[in-house]
Specification:
There is one protein chain. The chain is about 40% helix and about 20% strand. The longest helix is centred in the N-terminal third of the chain and has 45 residues, at about 5-50. The protein is elongated, with a radius of gyration of 24 Å. The chain has helices at about 5-50, 125, 155-175, and strands at about 55-60, 65-70, 75-80, 90-95, 100-110. The protein has about 180 residues and is of the alpha+beta class.
């Protein structure tokens, strides 16, 4: 009866793992620049959607980007916010023009409940923020009598988080 050769099995497993690791490293290194380029392109496209007349962008802080037209005139800002939603942080970008009015709103990433909390990310809810500029109005109606935003039924926490994020973005631009 032959004893199993554990050293041979271990060495074979080591070789297979080393080749696999080298293969993954090779693919990563060869696609890294393309991934970065694609991410930068997506950021530019998102910026153009939030402030369509902008032709160039300058990061002021990690959360605020100033936007310029083709003549180099400042036309507004894009503010990134991360309010706490029901399921976790909601990453969002808010486009605010020179008059301090909201001209664009995009949810970048979230972990809200599919089907329920995600209803907040539809255009009918997000569109309610467009053209608002004073933070006194940017509240849910159920939270503040001055508020003009209707919460989505069953997604109040997410509605409140998005509303808070938009309000904070407008406040940052006022500073």
């Amino acid at each position: 009866m032959n004893k199993p050769n554990y050293f041979k099995y271990g060495f074979t497993l080591f070789i297979v793992c080393a080749i696999s690791a080298l293969g993954v490293t090779f693919v990563y290194l060869n696609t890294k620049t393309e991934i970065i380029r694609t991410q930068e392109l997506r950021i530019k496209q998102m910026q153009k959607k939030l402030l369509p007349s902008a032709t160039s962008f300058m990061e002021i802080t990690k959360t605020i980007t100033e936007c310029f037209d083709e003549h180099g005139n400042s036309i507004g800002h894009i503010v990134f916010e991360n309010p706490q939603g029901y399921g976790g942080l909601i990453e969002m970008a808010v486009g605010i023009d020179k008059k301090r009015e909201i001209v664009g709103l995009k949810i970048l990433k979230h972990k809200e409940t599919p089907g329920l909390g995600t209803r907040v990310f539809r255009d009918d809810f997000l569109g309610a923020f467009l053209s608002l500029g004073t933070t006194e109005q940017i509240f849910l109606k159920k939270d503040d009598p001055r508020g003009i935003i209707d919460a989505i039924t069953g997604a109040t926490a997410t509605s409140r988080a998005v509303t808070q994020g938009v309000r904070e973005a407008v406040e940052k631009v006022k500073e």
